[in-house]
């Protein structure tokens, strides 16, 4: 039996295991191009908070008897995104989630409570969480074809809705698809509703990556509340950056009011998907938003778009046909060797891979990838 250590200390073999794991994380973080994660953050100033069990149980707008929380900061984060998404003041509600998948689940949950007999429509390029969430909620659905760039096929959507025009419509619009960052146009989608005399409808926008910078793109893609969205979900650990997966969902307040119920022993309302919610994530998001501000976010997307253009040129220089959608930071190219895929952690599907030109990625890192690509075919 191994000798016991003093309280709070690891055994030598466990310390070695931990040290080795940390070194591996550092190495793999330097070769991380295939997934939408910003890596240019530093939250060392927040380390003292890791000593405390912050829990935002329940509704962020209602104080709880569990007072070790970050609700006040969460509300500031939500207000920032609500304004960014042009929600009417006083008419929105939201909460910080565990990520975009939970935000999608919440949007669909609210929509189902509004229209229990509705048909859900989503494109074949939609994130896998949507199909899973639809199954969890036991909602009928129809998959719509996509165009070659990943955007929804509006003609197929129109024809399909026409066949089911007697049913309310719940639409999941992609504001940046997983593989190609294609953006569905919700103004065009709403026009299809009108053409088919659809009077009961709900549009949820999955803007996991793109929502944090879509307002700064020119032209601005139609995706927010003024354009016709009923709810918008984003990820916080993607373009903004966080060591813990997180996100936010913003929804029209009248919809939240239909599903909330009081829970006496915690002294607040149960209006979210999860019960206990991570109280640290809102602090990370608040800290980063205060650091960056609107101009910082605008500068981040400008730099990422420039890096994406640089990446396209580098692919062209080695004879690889790469492409990207307009105002996208996702560069798509033919699937390289398995060694390159594994080394650079490239997301790959149906013979094509992509890289995300996220904040924190340098031209030097792109050059190293291109050097590997040049010998991989």
Overall average residue pLDDT: 93
Tell me the total number of β-strands. 12
End-to-end separation: 53 Å
Rg from C-alpha positions?
A: 22 Å
CATH superfamily of the largest domain, by name, is Type I PLP-dependent aspartate aminotransferase-like (Major domain)
Strands, helices and their partners?
Layout: H1 12-29, H2 71-84, E1 92-97, H3 100-114, E2 119-123, H4 128-136, E3 141-144, H5 154-163, E4 169-174, H6 186-195, E5 201-206, E6 231-235, H7 237-241, E7 247-252, H8 253-256, E8 261-263, E9 268-270, H9 280-317, E10 330-334, H10 338-344, E11 347-349, E12 352-356, H11 363-373
Parallel strand pairs: 2-3, 2-4, 4-5, 5-6
Antiparallel strand pairs: 1-7, 6-7, 8-9, 10-12, 11-12
Helix pairs in contact: 2-9, 3-4, 5-6, 9-11
Outline the structure in words:
Helices cover 37% and strands 15% of the residues. With 377 residues, it is of the alpha/beta class. The protein has two domains: 13-41 and 295-373, Aspartate Aminotransferase, domain 1 (Alpha-Beta Complex), CATH 3.90.1150.10; 48-289, Type I PLP-dependent aspartate aminotransferase-like (Major domain) (Aspartate Aminotransferase, domain 2, 3-Layer(aba) Sandwich). A seven-stranded mixed sheet has the order 1-7-6-5-4-2-3, with helices on both faces. Strands 10-12-11 form a three-stranded antiparallel sheet, with helices on one face. The termini are far apart.
Descriptive terms for the model:
about 375 residues; alpha/beta; Aspartate Aminotransferase, domain 1; Aspartate Aminotransferase, domain 2; 7-stranded mixed beta sheet; 3-stranded antiparallel beta sheet; 11 helices; 12 strands; about 35% helix
């Amino acid at each position: 039996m191994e000798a016991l250590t003093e309280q709070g200390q690891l055994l030598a073999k466990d310390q070695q295991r931990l040290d080795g794991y940390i070194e591996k994380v550092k190495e793999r973080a330097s070769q991380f191009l295939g997934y939408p994660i910003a890596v240019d953050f530093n939250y060392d100033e927040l380390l003292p908070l890791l000593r405390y069990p912050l829990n935002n149980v329940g509704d962020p707008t209602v104080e709880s008897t569990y007072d070790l929380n970050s609700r006040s900061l969460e509300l500031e984060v939500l207000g920032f995104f609500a304004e960014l998404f042009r929600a009417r003041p006083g008419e929105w509600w939201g909460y910080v989630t565990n990520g975009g998948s939970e935000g999608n689940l919440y949007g669909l949950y609210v929509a189902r409570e509004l229209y229990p007999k509705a048909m859900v429509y989503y494109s074949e390029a939609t994130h896998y969480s949507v199909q899973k969430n639809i199954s969890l909620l036991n909602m009928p659905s129809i998959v719509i074809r996509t165009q070659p760039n990943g955007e929804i096929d509006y003609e197929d959507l129109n024809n399909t809705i026409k066949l089911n025009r007697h049913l309310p419509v719940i639409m999941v619009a992609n504001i940046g698809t997983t593989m190609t960052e294609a953006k569905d146009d919700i103004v065009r989608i709403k026009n299809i509703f009108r053409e088919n005399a659809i009077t009961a409808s709900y549009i949820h926008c999955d803007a996991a990556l793109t929502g944090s910078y879509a307002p700064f793109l020119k032209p601005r893609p139609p995706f927010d509340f003024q354009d016709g969205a009923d709810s918008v979900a984003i990820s916080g650990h993607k373009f903004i950056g966080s060591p813990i997966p997180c996100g936010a969902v913003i929804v029209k307040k009248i919809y939240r009011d239909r599903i909330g119920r009081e829970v006496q022993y915690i002294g607040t309302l149960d209006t979210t998907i999860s019960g206990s919610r991570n109280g640290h994530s809102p602090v990370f998001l608040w800290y980063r938003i205060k650091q960056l501000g609107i101009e910082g976010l605008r500068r981040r997307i400008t730099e990422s778009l420039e890096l994406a253009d640089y990446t396209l040129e580098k692919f062209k220089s080695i004879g690889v046909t790469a492409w990207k959608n307009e105002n996208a930071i996702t560069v798509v190219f033919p699937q390289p060797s398995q060694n390159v895929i594994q080394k650079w952690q490239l997301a790959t599907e149906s013979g094509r891979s992509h890289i995300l030109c996220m904040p924190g990625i340098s031209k030097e890192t792109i050059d190293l990838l291109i050097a590997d690509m040049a010998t991989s075919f």
